[in-house]
Amino acid sequence: MKIRSDLLRIHQSLHTWVGITTGALLFIGFFAGALTMFKQPLERWISAPAHMLPSVAPASRDKLVSELLLQHTAARHEFTLHLLPRENVTAPVVWSEGESHELQLSGERWQATLNQQGELQAEKITPDMFGELIDMLHRTAGIPGTLGGEYIGVYIMGIAGIMYFLALVSGLVLLLPTLVKDFLALRPGKNRKRFWLDAHNVIGIASLPYHIVISLTVIVFAFHDFFYDGLAEVVYREQPMFTPPAPKVQEPYQVQTLMPVSELIARVQQAAPQFVVDELLFMDLETVRPRVRVAINSAQYILQGPQSGYVIIHPYTGELLDTSMLPTQADAWSLTTTSFFALHFGTYGGNMMRWVYFFLGLGGAFLFYSGNLLWIESRRKKQKQGQAAVVQARNTRWMAAATIGICLGSIIGTLASLLAGKWLFTAADNINNAYLSVYYAAFLLAIGWAFYRGAAVASVHLLWLCAAASIAVPATSLLSVLLPSLRLWAHSSPAALGVDLTALAAALMFVYGARLTARRVNHGPRDSVWSARRLAHE
User: Fold this and answer.
1) Could you tell me if 438 and 428 are in contact, meaning their C-beta atoms sit under 8 angstroms apart?
2) Which of 68, 122, 243, 336 has its CA 20 to 30 A from that of 76?
């Protein structure tokens, strides 16, 4: 396919500058997004046994709920009943006394169970929010601050999503003339830039549908409030967009007449026999609009939530109020919306698709990392123009240092936060604040080190630090078994062990990358920004 040279130059410039301006942010978003595919196993690995209350038998759930509502009236506004015991499920029931749904690092939560005598045992804790913080890193790239009730980073990532889509289109246009010849071509050899470009192109083209879906959904997620406001102004005008049905009763319900939990579960199972009921979120029990949001799971269906699908049921009558998020009963619009969410979150196909999305996410992070490296090396090629060697411009050196520091710093910061969840648990007043302190300290130190030592030397050091932080994850689990006096802990579930094994594999990859990078730094072209050997006239 032949494309005019002037059009190729325009798309080349667009692809380059869009990638340069958003690459570091998108790297963080994709790396953290890959981790969110296994958010629950990470939470299970890090969850402290000290916070856990024993589960109750199915036959005791009704008594647990009735005692909870009798003794703790705040739970009548909202509480969650967990049915499946896991390491990150600290108690059968949890609730908060406040009504805020925002992420509160210092927010306290109540949890309860029944003791051996059948009496309600309740306690107040500060919930561990490592999983939520990883998700927030994915949504905001770690940019702090809020604007109009939303995180500033969400809007910035939405803008990055728009530019990211432009980069995809322009990159595809650039590859069209040689797509058939160069697709899946990886040419190793002395020309390392050619190899990196081949790898960049192969990953980009092979995962193009995934990246198109992610870019479009990021835009919608970031600016959905603006879309709603626009619809309200242009289409609905004086009419409300969402009109809830009129309540069937005029007087608030009383919790004494609440339908047994076992009956609510049975009715949901009857409507969705292919699904497993995971948890029940009771809301507004003493109002005219009480409801229970039932989370259901199945690897055979596309689900709307990051982890689950949902059914809304009436807690007093057992009537199914909303099945639009139930794949087997959803209408065409609901299925379209569910598919939109599922394609972003990867909530279909079970663990196999989670692994696929995990590697696609890491591949996306590699795209932006490699794109910046290619631009930096291209600058040297353009500067040479027949010269034997060139002196790297300051902006090129700074761009290289920023790329190394931000990208590798986000990896180091995330791993350091994960480790802090166990090593600092007994020392920190609030482990959630410790997560933030450790992440930003490691992140900023990595950036500072990259600028101080230069991209070449710092890249080797930071890759080795990535490897050390990765190997420290399974090492922590091993030490908790060998040295109980350290007051650490290790869970033996497949999910928790999977975190250790994945971290071990990552450590090996970082070691391999550090060795290759060291070889390039010590033996590559001396006029490259990736060389530790200075030119005589520098």
Assistant:
1) no
2) 243
Q: Are 530 and 459 in contact (CB under 8 A)?
A: yes
Check if the beta carbon of residue 236 is closer than 8 Å to that of residue 228: no
Residue among 397, 441, 404 at smallest CA distance from 419: 441
Q: How far apart are CA 275 and CA 304, in angstroms?
A: 14
For 21-78, what is each residue's pLDDT tens digit?
Answer: 888 899 999 999 999 999 989 999 999 887 789 999 999 999 999 999 999 999 999 9
Q: Name every residue whose Cβ is closer than 8 Å to that of residue 224 and which is 6 or more positions away in sequence.
A: none
pLDDT digits (tens, 9 = 90+) for 320-366: 998 877 777 766 766 677 777 777 888 777 788 889 999 999 998 98
Q: Which structure tokens are listed for 158?
A: 């939405």
Q: How far apart are CA 167 and CA 162, in angstroms?
A: 9
* DSSP one-letter code for 232: I
Nearest one of 354, 469, 429, 490 to 33, comparing CA atoms:
354
Query: Nearest to residue 211, comparing CAs of 246, 149, 174, 165?
Result: 165
What does the DSSP assignment read for 146-201? EETTEEHHHHHHHHHHHHHHHHHHHHHHHHGGGHHHHTT----SS-HHHHHHHHHH
What pLDDT is recorded for position 478? 96
pTM score, whole prediction: 0.86
Closest C-alpha to 166, from 155, 176, 177, 174? 174
CA angle, 381 as apex, 380 and 387 as ends, to 5°? 90
Residue partners of 141: CB distance under 8 A and separation at least 6: 25, 26, 28, 29, 32, 153, 156, 157, 160
